[in-house]
Write a structure and sequence with these properties.
By secondary structure, the protein is an alpha+beta fold. It has helices at about 15-35, 90-95, 115-125, 145-155, and strands spanning about 35-40, 50-55, 60-70, 80-85, 100-105, 110-115, 135, 140, 165, 170, 175, 200. The chain has 2 domains: about 15-155, Trna Endonuclease, Chain: A, domain 1 (3-Layer(aba) Sandwich), CATH 3.40.1350; about 165-180 and about 190-205, no CATH class. It contains 4 helices and 12 strands; from the N terminus they run αββββαββαββαββββ. The relative contact order is 0.14.
Length: about 210
């Protein structure tokens, strides 16, 4: 005879929740084994990114950071690899100050696959064309072997979003002042040293993060 569940009727557990937690656990464990710092984004602040990663080298933070969107399960498989729907995150991911990476965990093989969603969306952007999914190939596997080192190196050299501009140029109608340089003397040759430049986000101080790469 089958016993009744304690406390009354059984309450089913959402399988997607279990699969998602397994995927996050697999990625978090991998990064922490290599001493990188992981911050989980709580549900109230999850708007398309699940984790925030700050990279560490020789027990010191490098200043390179990324956002991670994690998916898990067979539903993300394609004929040539995996995919992550962009949903309503497409524009933000493509312009994010810190790059957004999509990670898919395949529970049957226990493998992780990872791709730079920000770079892929910027590269594929065309007038009147919207990318429905970020694509991951089977070659973009992320594991304890050489691929983690390659992943960190890729982040360290990732270019800034195309929406970024130098502060010495107009930004949204506002001309940022150039840094003060030495005054020219009458009759002297102009200085050959260009004014110092720094990068700034077109969205101003309200941006979520400053660029994580030099």
């Amino acid at each position: 005879m089958q016993s009744e569940p304690v406390g009354g009727a059984a309450m089913p557990v959402n399988k997607n929740r279990v699969t998602k937690r397994a995927a996050i656990h697999a990625f978090t464990g991998l990064m922490e084994r290599h001493e990188h710092m992981i911050q989980k984004i709580d549900g109230d602040n999850d708007h398309g990114e699940d984790l925030y990663v700050s990279f560490v080298e020789n027990l010191e933070r490098t200043g390179n950071t990324v956002w991670i969107q994690v998916k898990g399960g067979r539903s993300y498989r394609t004929g040539s690899g995996y995919h992550v729907p962009t949903e309503n995150h497409r524009e933000y991911w493509s312009r994010s100050n810190a790059p957004v990476f999509c990670v898919v965990h395949d529970p049957e093989t226990d493998e992780l696959f990872c791709t730079n969603a920000s770079a892929q969306l910027r590269k594929s952007k065309r007038p009147g064309r919207e990318i429905a999914s970020v694509q991951l190939t089977k070659d973009e596997v992320l594991n304890d072997r050489q691929s983690v080192r390659s992943f960190v190196r890729h982040v360290s050299i990732s270019p800034k979003p195309s929406g970024w501009r130098c502060a010495s140029r107009p930004v949204h109608g506002h001309v940022a002042p150039r840094p003060a340089g030495p005054k020219k003397s009458t009759g002297s040759a102009p200085s050959s040293t260009p004014p110092a430049r720094k990068w700034t986000s077109p969205t101003g101080s309200g941006a979520r993060n400053r660029a994580s790469t030099p």
